[in-house]
Amino acid sequence: MVRVGVVGGGQLARMMIPAAINLGFDLRVFAESEVCSARAAHTVVGDYANAEELLAFATDVDVLTFDHEHVSGGVLSTLTDRGVVLYPTAEALALTHDKAFMRSTLSALGYPQPRWTVVDGGPIPQQEIDAVGGFPLIAKKPVGGYDGKGVRQVNVVDDLSDWLEEGPLLLEEKVNFRRELSQLSARNSQGDWIAWDLVQTLQENGVCAEVIAPAPDLPLGLTHLAGDLARNMAYDLGVVGVFAIELFETQEGQLLVNELAMRPHNSGHVFTELSVTSQFEQHLRAVAGFPLGSTRSLTSYGVMVNIFGQVDEAGARAAYKADPDVKIHDYMKEARAGRKAGHVVVVGENHQDLVARCKDAAARIRQPDYDGDHE
Ligand code: ADP
Question: Which of 97, 98, 113, 138 to mutate to test the pocket of ligand 1 (most atoms within 8 A of CB)?
């Protein structure tokens, strides 16, 4: 029996559980607490910053994978040196640890990105501001940001001073994008690769709020461009597992890479209902060296809307009653304002109709008390 260990007990690990059951894999989770989202799996509680604890966990599995990207490079290299099979590898994960490192790696490989530069302390030379097209620009903390935390629009140089005290900053051109897209694909340890349809994502306050799959009104050229980009990147970066490329579609119809995730991603949740193979099943197949599943869509469109704060049980019942096509995924997390608590998906023929139905369901499910700022 294939034994897969997942570091992190969040919703991504949780959603790997049904896939593992169907595949007949033994899924074990190394979680930060017993009350984690993935508690339905065989769970070991430990500290992912402690290499010895992770090594002990890894002795019982064939391959170690991740629910999050927080395990440090030092711990990852200790695991690799001690013979633990990690997918994604420490090298691939390094790209998600540091946005400045990701930008320089992708630039060296010739991938299209927003103009960028790194500044370290003030005063910032005018040429650095000019290099990213002047104000307004986007500043990012290279390390530790997520869900829009650590990303800020900067209109005047003074807007940067508090962050500069904390360390170097990545400055980027503010892309006047037409929309944001995400390309999900997977590569297995034999080197086979497959992509899902390119999806459209809508961010609110820097957090993914809504996904439409496939992205409506896509010129065929962009579909091919995104697919080629993902395939080339999967090989160039030695990716094993599911990975997501967040993209900007510019007004001129170009694609620019915003970010990478070396794991199943919020923008791919829709494929659980839409596609023959979910991203969670595909990730497990990929890291276990199994043949990859078909990514063919079962119907024309799928829409996903995130629920923040808490999934209200009475609201969920009301949403199911109002629309039997609605699928609700409750991450069973402790309620917290702005935290991703679950999502809804509806699949069908007309994407506008699906968006309306997802929003209607989400409005019933949401607890207004917890709908504050996104975490
Ligand atoms: P996080 O790692 O916190 O998710 P991202 O780098 O993905 O941060 O940025 C979050 C959001 O901020 C993006 O989805 C996009 O809406 C906006 N954003 C990020 N970089 C740029 C940019 N260079 N130009 C315009 N908008 C941007």
Answer: 138
For 245, phi then psi, to 5°, come to -115, 115
Q: How far is CA 75 from the centre of its chain?
A: 22
Neighbouring residues of 220: CB distance < 8 A, sequence distance ≥ 6: none
From 115, 117, 172, 258, the mutation candidate for ligand 1 (largest count of ligand atoms within 8 A of CB) is: 258
The minimum-distance atom of ligand 1 relative to the CA of 174 is: 24
Burial code (b: 16+ CB inside 10 Å, e: under 16) for 35-52 equals ebbbbebebbebebeebe
For ligand 1, whether the C-beta of 210 sits within 6 Å is: no
Token look-up 């390119």 returns 198
Structure token digits, residue 321: 């009653």
What pLDDT, in 10s, does the model give residues 309-359?
999 999 999 999 999 999 999 999 999 988 999 999 999 999 999 999 999
Residue ranges for the chain with pLDDT beneath 50? 371-375
Q: Which amino acid is at 293?
A: G
State whether the beta carbon of 133 lies less than 6 angstroms from ligand 1. no
Contacts of 184 (CB under 8 A, 6+ apart): 195, 196, 199, 242, 243, 244, 265, 267, 268, 271, 279
Specify whether the CB–CB gap between 196 and 295 falls below 8 A: yes
Residue 272 contacts residue 297 (beta carbons within 8 Å):
no
